[in-house]
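tokens incoming
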């Protein structure tokens, strides 16, 4: 599988995020909340949000970069194809190391996989 995180792998339009918030299922981890729902594509797509409550721009961008990196390297493989996933960062994520964030994301994506199968 290609390792790049292309435009086709992203949720980009506001309408996509709004649709997920209306129809998606929720799962939590210590540092993230995720909404997910099926799509008609053969690949999972990811959208990431970190509000100003999370921290300044540098901190928000770091969190978003780590989430995208996890999805690019590991998350895309673990979740079933045909899912749209919106990951929302919690305030607690800012103070964590990259390893802790990756563990939290691993837990989150495992919950998504289990809940999708149910």
């Amino acid at each position: 599988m290609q390792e790049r995180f292309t435009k086709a792998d992203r949720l980009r339009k506001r309408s996509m995020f709004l649709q997920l918030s209306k129809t998606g299922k929720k799962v939590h981890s210590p540092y993230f909340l995720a909404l997910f729902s099926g799509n008609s594509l053969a690949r999972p797509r990811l959208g990431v949000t970190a509000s100003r409550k999370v921290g300044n721009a540098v901190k928000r961008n770091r969190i978003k970069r780590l989430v995208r990196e996890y999805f690019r390297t590991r998350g895309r493989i673990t979740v079933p194809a045909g899912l749209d996933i919106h990951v929302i960062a919690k305030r607690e994520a800012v103070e964590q190391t990259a390893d802790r964030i990756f563990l939290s994301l691993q837990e989150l994506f495992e919950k998504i996989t289990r809940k999708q199968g149910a």
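note: The mean pLDDT is 92.
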